[in-house]
Amino acid sequence: MTKVIKGGIVVTADRQVQADILIEGETIKEIGPDLKGDEYIDAEGAYVIPGGIDPHTHLEMPFMGTTAAETFETGTWAAAAGGTTMVIDFCLPGADGSIKNAINEWHRKSAPQICSDIGYHMAITGWNEQIFDEMKYAVDAGVNSFKHFMAYKGALMVEDDEMFASFSRCVELGALPMVHAENGDLVDLMQKKFLAEGKTGPEWHARSRPPEFEGEATNRAITVADAAGTPLYVVHVSCEQAHEAIRRARQKGMRVYGEPLVQFLTLDHDEYLSTDWDHSARRVMSPPFRGREFHDSLWAGLQSGSLQVVATDHCAFTTEQKRMGLNDFTKIPNGTNGLEERLAVLWTQGVETGRLTPEEFVAVTSTNIARILNIYPKKGAIMPGADADIVVWDPKISKTISASNHKSIIDYNVFEGTKVTAQARYTLSRGEVIWAWGQNSQPQPGRGRFVPRPAFNSAATALSKWKALNSPRSVQRDPLNIPAGV
Amino acid sequence: MTKVIKGGIVVTADRQVQADILIEGETIKEIGPDLKGDEYIDAEGAYVIPGGIDPHTHLEMPFMGTTAAETFETGTWAAAAGGTTMVIDFCLPGADGSIKNAINEWHRKSAPQICSDIGYHMAITGWNEQIFDEMKYAVDAGVNSFKHFMAYKGALMVEDDEMFASFSRCVELGALPMVHAENGDLVDLMQKKFLAEGKTGPEWHARSRPPEFEGEATNRAITVADAAGTPLYVVHVSCEQAHEAIRRARQKGMRVYGEPLVQFLTLDHDEYLSTDWDHSARRVMSPPFRGREFHDSLWAGLQSGSLQVVATDHCAFTTEQKRMGLNDFTKIPNGTNGLEERLAVLWTQGVETGRLTPEEFVAVTSTNIARILNIYPKKGAIMPGADADIVVWDPKISKTISASNHKSIIDYNVFEGTKVTAQARYTLSRGEVIWAWGQNSQPQPGRGRFVPRPAFNSAATALSKWKALNSPRSVQRDPLNIPAGV
Amino acid sequence: MTKVIKGGIVVTADRQVQADILIEGETIKEIGPDLKGDEYIDAEGAYVIPGGIDPHTHLEMPFMGTTAAETFETGTWAAAAGGTTMVIDFCLPGADGSIKNAINEWHRKSAPQICSDIGYHMAITGWNEQIFDEMKYAVDAGVNSFKHFMAYKGALMVEDDEMFASFSRCVELGALPMVHAENGDLVDLMQKKFLAEGKTGPEWHARSRPPEFEGEATNRAITVADAAGTPLYVVHVSCEQAHEAIRRARQKGMRVYGEPLVQFLTLDHDEYLSTDWDHSARRVMSPPFRGREFHDSLWAGLQSGSLQVVATDHCAFTTEQKRMGLNDFTKIPNGTNGLEERLAVLWTQGVETGRLTPEEFVAVTSTNIARILNIYPKKGAIMPGADADIVVWDPKISKTISASNHKSIIDYNVFEGTKVTAQARYTLSRGEVIWAWGQNSQPQPGRGRFVPRPAFNSAATALSKWKALNSPRSVQRDPLNIPAGV
Amino acid sequence: MTKVIKGGIVVTADRQVQADILIEGETIKEIGPDLKGDEYIDAEGAYVIPGGIDPHTHLEMPFMGTTAAETFETGTWAAAAGGTTMVIDFCLPGADGSIKNAINEWHRKSAPQICSDIGYHMAITGWNEQIFDEMKYAVDAGVNSFKHFMAYKGALMVEDDEMFASFSRCVELGALPMVHAENGDLVDLMQKKFLAEGKTGPEWHARSRPPEFEGEATNRAITVADAAGTPLYVVHVSCEQAHEAIRRARQKGMRVYGEPLVQFLTLDHDEYLSTDWDHSARRVMSPPFRGREFHDSLWAGLQSGSLQVVATDHCAFTTEQKRMGLNDFTKIPNGTNGLEERLAVLWTQGVETGRLTPEEFVAVTSTNIARILNIYPKKGAIMPGADADIVVWDPKISKTISASNHKSIIDYNVFEGTKVTAQARYTLSRGEVIWAWGQNSQPQPGRGRFVPRPAFNSAATALSKWKALNSPRSVQRDPLNIPAGV
Ligand SMILES: [Zn+2]
Ligand SMILES: [Zn+2]
Ligand SMILES: [Zn+2]
Ligand SMILES: [Zn+2]
Ligand SMILES: [Zn+2]
Ligand SMILES: [Zn+2]
Ligand SMILES: [Zn+2]
Ligand SMILES: [Zn+2]
Q: What does this protein do (chains A, B, C, D) (predicted)?
């Protein structure tokens, strides 16, 4: 059976064209004018874009003594409603420390629930021989990226030598290391200092992890990656300090990628100064929202290419869960929503203002991460042969974001009251319409699939070649020029 | 009749894939495995890439009292042999100052000669109402880019207010302004100073136009472009100073593009210190070759995306012509060859070293400029519907560059003796093989076509939207708050 | 007769020490504990600092069709009340273009009026042989600095080649070139554009000369200075863009100085948005006040040494005069007050906040400019032999700045309502108390003297040596290697 | 008894003046023309400058299984011959970890040996309550600076949290933290990696600690210092990466000081490629010499003020000692000579080339560090009341540096063969001539004194004020806005 998306303007990372799209089964068959098919999907007056890929979610993740409330079902359903057709979720080892078991556990949890496709990043939270060995298991299983926490001291944090070991292992495996970049030692000290001073409110969360700590850790991770000879992906870039470190590295030709969150592009740290405790606590995440003076830096990064990907770090806890930290900001579970809102907020505040071109919008929400994670053009593309993960993106549907109408499981929304001027008219996952605006779509848990990702992407391959060619040799010294005693 | 390029690895700006390419007539019909056609072109063991686009040539251009020796025929033929299937040539108004007449003159000269496709940039060398009016003619005629010389005082140079006027006109027309960025006043003063001191040799050419002058002019042009509200394309970026200005602008979200030349990526200003006058004079161009310390900066620009396009500024004069400046370096016709060598040199010193990925190589030699100049994906792409401008790029053919075996008309080669490790096995222009390695191919003058380019590319459109939304308004003052006397 | 300043903390650019100061006649004799003299000046609880030097004033200057209202008498009297004991005033050639006549005219005007010492900078507003010749006259007459306007097109503005010629002449004479750095072409275009659009209010003054225009011109002037081989002094640095250009040059070892104004460190461009026309117009100056986001940049420049001097550009017009531009912002005379307030505002917002040390306060208000202008340690120092230009600076006297209590001749104050927490208890000029807080001091016109300044300061000398040693030589070519025909 | 230094040009950090200097006992009494005294020291044709202060020496320091060969006697004697009248030596705790005992041990060793004055920096090599307590002892004993090693893992290295604790303690005590900035984890990993690969030669020393590791650690230390609210002094800055981090911090107003070594300004890492093992090993120090491309960066830092002090890290081991690392570069004792050569090399390659003014030479060799370490103007100044630590600096004495004629105890010299064009004609320590060129001067061990340094210098005081004023407050939340459960 074939479908034709009819009458829209196809926007990809490299062009805009008025064209129909013919879908056969799960993949795109043809792009061109006047295509025919068994069914038609109306795209008149709309853009037709690759489905969004959110490379940074934490669904049902056990964290800080509780578990993220957003499930694989509600999360992927909210994603679909928002125009996102794939998430890459962070997989954490359990008590046994096994990567293999963690991946299997993630499969067990996600498989029956996911409404669209999924992939994982694997977290490296320590270093030993088992981890070294099982990293290969992960790559063979289609997980080609490894996350390292430089914060959360005493819990997830790894030290520089552990990062170096893991990054070096990534080079061997052709995998991509990622970092959560904040100086965990300093955050820990600040937390203790503030608590000791009786400073317990959520505003102190932000103050315990200032931009300088993020910039420092970003710079350090880049140094480690360069020493190991690997590209690096920096998740949730929130500030100029981290962005500066990334830019500086890139100016030297280093292969470093930066991922601002849609929250960091649009929301302000003054939210933590609300006199309503719940309001502030709901916005607690790490890194925290930053001052408005950083927004321009991040937008310019997307425009100039020094930042490549807009994600969400969607890790949604209920107000009830947030209240675990009523007397102690360090106990507020870290995380906010964003998975459902990402495309609409970015379009409204990015494309509608002229900051981003429509092509850039597609690049930063879908194509770039697909290329970085080596699943392009299966994902992130509209071209013959690609998966038909497609969104009919209607720039005429306005909406005010609210917890009262969102799909997410949680009881609030950090974008509450934000007006957006575009929405997904239809969302297709592998050829199937999984969301249709105003048509009472329902989640289809279990139809999503795990998408394995091959190792050794192009940048990693080139960098390894460069490093090999530029390794120094030992000086050849005549024994006569070496003192006796050797 | 159909052709299939068989067995190669297709490399585009966004991916590599083992696939055949089916060509029907002049365009690409299909990309995929096991395609069938009337004819087969062997690409086993080779890459298959979009034909190179050199956006910066001066063929048969009248300049400095002579005319560039490379003709449209020899130039496009040399291009074909080197894997380049389209050039964008600089069109200069004649004595009458008419843009319209200049375009027609360029058509008259190029049409019977060109072996592959061509486009023009139009030079703006002064400012008056005729120019204002005829800029629209140019755009309507498919010339959507205008070049401004900030050097060559007393000849081509324009002043800041003229640039502003022209840039503003570009905004209205949706055209792209370009600059040759060197401070012409200072160059002129240095030239006079050196000549007055009896310093006449070609080494003084380079010293009369140091990197600082280029950086200054680049920065100034960016300021003018930002004031006018237009993207800007900086041709022949040779040094860190100019690159820094471009990076700094891009970091603020400005839409500035930079074009290093393959010469500037690989050749050194010490060439001007040769005790052989001819050797030095043959390398005289503006800007001149720079110190090796800048090469890394330019390569990193390509890697990080702060520079987008590698061109050649091919403007080839014979040794005889160069000798016009025997007693006065300011009379040496400015220009070098490069059109034929660009791809092979960049591949060898870029891709083979691991500096660039194959995808990046395609991006900077073809795709990026096609997008910037708004002819993508007709040109610069391998996708269904695109022109079949395709090169079968063989990474196993080694060669030493030499005037003795090049196609260019001139009697020397600035890359003389440089070893390259890849060459075009076949070059196709709109589906036709116009070059086949080792098979005694012959130029086919007149088969090339002029390719008109539409205005209002995506970046210009976005920028205009941003500028419109961010224009300030007048303060509303109550007449009571305005002093009497108004 | 001797005087002793007793009981204070002497603060110089390099140290703080509890000490008395013995003055004999016009100069300092000794610094130490328990000094005796004929008279005592009480400095208990106060700091004792070198008198302020304001290197940027325009007293009684004919400008924009009127003459600055502040006279040499009222200006130097206001200065004394504010703790400033020397001003360097800008001397402009008259209609005859003669430097010599201009200096004599300035002497004629200033001599009978000045209450404390004075020097001049000479403006270069064109280029010809007379100017070339008379620059030497100026230097011989003790004027070792020359100002160049890159703005005020059609009036004071000079072109790049004129700047180069004048800068080169400065090198020969050992004089220091200075620039008013704004791109005059672009300002002129913006003014015309806004007026043509009916935008006539004072807010459009600021918008017609954005920070980018200042940054551009600063960068250009630096390039010209580097080409000529001279240090450069950039007056009234208002923004990060100009500061960045200065920093970038200094990072390369270039000898560039930057002078933020106290207004630019503390006042905001939102003042131009006042609905009270007079309020906005009174603050019209060039460059204009900038956004608050730049204040941190300028303060940090003072802290780190990338900016060296805090001046005022005191050029005070009455409200009546400002109203010349009621229907046309380009006709509002450019200039604000500040001479009287500089020290108190800088102390309160700089030293009292911990941004600056007391030593740095002295450096940027007095010592640095004395060194740059080569009159140190006669001025700008507290050491034996130095002129006894000394201020007893009382950090306990609070005051709210107001036109109602200032000494300036004008009818408003741009710092109106600003609280300051320190004032001059006593101001001494060459050993004489010319201001005593609360003691009904009166101006003493005519007691001030012109202070000639020698040429060839230390930085200029070093730079000339460096340039001489690093000049390239011609390549020696064997005639055999030069083609026949030479 | 009085002495007069007659006929020279007195150069201080702020001026040059032809003047005599009258010395009474140990201090300077007067500076002026035609002074009389009991004795005369001829300074005709010479400069008269404050005695050099080398703030970075390791005399007789136990390190890497041996003890630095240079003794307090030979070291201070070599210093005197080279124009340096004070050293600040690094004091290391012994096995008991006691700061108090270490200081006493250093007194015990140095007192009978030193020929001129001395001070100490105290090393913090771990963290516990005893160290916390004894830091106060150190400050009370006149040691106001504490050094932290970020390298030498397993030996001297401290972690980020330990640095933060110590830096915070410094804030309380008004002391200055210093860092040896290299990422010790990464160095350690590289060392192990290279050794495991059989790479044992001294060239691998440099490669195991690349500039990036130094830049990283510098950036990290700055972040820690900023969090703690203290100025920071970075010792032995060798490269642009570290300099960049310092500049970037200073541009934000942070109080960070950088100390390049004279070796890093003039010597090249190619020395490690010598085929003579001894030659390379003798130059092993940490950080190592760097590529020539960094020299310009460091010189420009001195010119622009982003770097403030030129030191030597004099830590001299004999060839015999160096050979401890014959089979393992990690066992080569780290350190080179420089104490004797610093002034002459810096003058020759700095002042004689025009890079530095004579005043800047004095600033970076003496005055700046005296101010930073809060012993100015007792040391580092030529003014009445200052210690008569004075050098008659003769710019006419040429010399080729060689182990055959130096005063240092070691058997080679890393500057061997370097020509210098100036030498100390006389060196005075507290009024006493301790070195006279060509007059067979002899060391006078035991005449030197320990110089205690007070805490709370001006920059630290200002910074503490700024931090206190800019600390955020808790949000006041109405209990009604805090959820029940609190
Ligand atoms: Zn995270
Ligand atoms: Zn996360
Ligand atoms: Zn050009
Ligand atoms: Zn050209
Ligand atoms: Zn001005
Ligand atoms: Zn002025
Ligand atoms: Zn060290
Ligand atoms: Zn050391």
A: Catalyzes the hydrolysis of dihydropyrimidines and of the structurally related DL-5-mono-substituted hydantoins, to produce N-carbamoyl-D-amino acids.
